[in-house]
Write a structure and sequence with these properties.
The complex is a heterodimer. Chain A is of the alpha+beta class. Chain A has helices at 16-24, 31-35, 65-69, 94-98, 127-131; strands at 2-6, 45-48, 53-56, 75-78, 81-84, 104-106, 112-114, 137-141. In chain A, 20% of the residues lie in helices and 23% in strands. By secondary structure, chain B is of the alpha/beta class.
Chain lengths: 142, 409
């Protein structure tokens, strides 16, 4: 299946992917309105220092410890995409305890959030990929 | 192939889903004492709190059994396993045959004897949906509640009923709360937070006797109460396997494929003990994620597939009144400690490996630490100074990171 991959060599550490992610998942149509005066809480995060940077988001594992460990059944994997049912999630953070990549995080509404490959928002294709100015983030089959 | 599962919680679901990864056809039967559709046991405190409801706390959807071709006998109890005849007896006198059997019988509350306990009218445990609903139905705004046990169950119960009752007192023989998952500093920090919610603790003591609505503690205190919750601990339900001649320690003894010592009989979940890779010893790890993964491993192995359950460690993610705690592994080793207002971090290393950790308050990306314990990551291959600051993939070698982030896992 297609996944989001980052090429560390090309990542500039510009953090634009984080903004595109936050915008795509805001449910709003206007980027300025969506992001003005807020601290973004994106599902993709840049890590790095002055020399190296790279984006980290859900790997959509074939052996997903977050899904297997989820105490409520809120996390599921269907057609390879791992999504969260925020209605079932109680925010116990067992998935945060489980994810080897640190790619699950608390959401602003008291439960958890993670990259769902933009399958649930208006974009339909990963916004971090389309927004990356240096094509360091790709969406492809490997 | 006829698969039979005794139990209907996380391990049973793991087993069904494990079987169906390999075998789409074989008949699966579930027998369980509780008459309910599979629900998430740890959510009973959230149910009382109003943070979930009976529909949302179902661990799998309403179509789970039908979709997976599972026949259920809910509200029925298995009374005996006949490993030679490969069948089990039920409490209604009938029997069911199996080719492969999973024992996922869970655990039961341990209620220590105490003088006068049998005279206490409103005594509850806090483990099943029915026990939680019975407790909730008994509570009033005037209730003075006494909880015996300051572990995960007792304190989750306290959180669940807070605001619904007049007072909550918690008694524990241990000198600190949550001793199974926290160190002394962590216990003190979480206790202070819980005390601010109005919960009163009585530690290093126990109830000597109950008489006419009063608990007389060994330290001389007298606590009047209306409702008693016994949350001292749990014991694995091992009797069926023991009576059938299988090896039982503290829990049912299982191997890496979750087989018991009896042929074609597997066990998974809270009723078992297994190898803890962090502590390097056999232990009962009564935790939902482990139960699911054991059940899944058993199911795959039963159906002829290959799977090993060999990275088990204790691990807990739990929150109390908004304060999040994530812990994993063993605390035996050299500790790195970082204390900040509202946050606590402890990383424990031994033999060049990360063995365990405690995070309170700031739990972001804790799974990076958990993975290092499970995978026994050689600390010589990571920048541990960076990891002390926070869990991050920057701490790994570029080549390792390329593997982690570059492919499918």
């Amino acid at each position: 299946m297609k996944r989001v991959y980052v090429n560390e060599k090309w990542c500039l550490g510009c953090h634009l992917c984080e903004y595109y992610c936050a915008f795509a998942n805001s449910g709003q149509k206007d980027m300025v309105k969506a992001l003005k005066d807020i601290v973004i809480n994106p599902r993709i995060r840049i890590e790095g220092d002055n020399f190296i940077s790279f984006a980290v988001s859900c790997r959509h594992c074939e052996e997903p410890l977050c899904v297997k460990g989820c105490i409520t059944g809120a996390l599921t994997r269907e057609n390879g995409v791992i999504t969260v049912d925020k209605n079932k999630c109680v925010g116990c953070y067992t998935c945060i305890l489980s994810c080897p990549y640190g790619a699950v995080m608390p959401s602003d509404d008291g439960v958890i959030q993670k990259c769902e490959l933009c399958t649930k928002n208006l974009d339909g294709v990963p916004a971090c990929v389309t927004g990356c100015p240096n094509r360091a983030i790709v969406y492809e089959e490997r | 192939m006829k698969y039979l599962i005794i139990g209907n919680s996380a391990a049973a679901v793991g087993c069904v889903e494990g079987i169906r990864q390999v075998d789409k056809e074989g008949g699966i039967t579930i027998v369980a004492t509780e008459p309910h559709h599979v629900y998430s046991r740890p959510l009973i405190s959230y149910l009382i709190l109003g943070r979930t409801d009976e529909q949302r706390m179902k661990y799998r959807g309403d179509d789970f059994y039908e979709k997976n071709g599972v026949r259920t006998f809910l509200g029925r109890t298995v009374t005996k396993i006949d490993p030679d005849g490969k069948k089990v007896s039920l409490d209604d006198g009938t029997s069911l045959a199996y080719d492969k059997l999973l024992v996922a019988t869970g655990s039961k509350p341990f209620v220590p004897p105490a003088e006068g306990l049998d005279q206490v009218e409103k005594t509850f445990t806090f483990m099943t949906l029915d026990s939680a609903k019975a407790l909730a139905a008994a509570l009033t705004k005037e209730s003075r509640v006494l909880i015996v046990g300051a572990g995960l169950i007792g304190l989750k119960c306290a959180e669940g009923i807070t605001g619904k009752v007049a007072s909550i007192d918690v008694v524990d023989m241990a000198g600190r709360i949550l001793p199974s998952i926290l160190d002394e500093h962590g216990s003190a920090m979480v206790m202070e937070h819980i005390q601010k919610q109005g919960i009163r603790f009585h530690l290093s003591t126990s109830v000597a006797r109950f008489k006419e609505g009063v608990a007389f503690l060994k330290n001389g205190e007298e606590l009047p109460f209306d409702i008693l919750v016994m949350a001292v601990g749990v014991r694995p339900n091992t009797e069926l396997v023991r009576d059938a001649g299988g090896e039982v320690g503290r829990g049912i003894v299982t191997d890496e494929t979750c087989r018991t010592t009896l042929p074609d009989i597997y066990a998974a979940g809270d009723c078992t003990e297994c190898w803890d890779v962090a502590a390097g010893q056999r232990r009962v790890l009564a935790l939902l994620p482990n139960a699911y993964m054991q059940g899944e491993t058993a199911g795959i192995d039963m159906a002829g597939g290959e799977k090993k359950y060999n990275k088990a460690i204790p691990m807990n993610a739990i929150g109390f009144w908004g304060l999040h705690i994530v812990t994993a592994g063993s605390y035996d080793g050299e500790a790195y400690v970082d204390e900040k207002p509202g946050a606590y971090k402890k990383l424990v290393t031994k033999d060049g490996l990360l063995k365990g950790y405690i995070l309170i308050g700031d739990v972001a990306r804790a799974g990076i630490y958990t993975s290092m314990i499970r995978e026994r990551t050689d600390l010589d291959t990571v920048d541990f100074e960076l990891l002390k600051q926070k869990p991050q993939l920057m701490a790994f070698r570029r080549s390792d990171r390329a593997k982690m982030l570059g492919g499918a896992h």
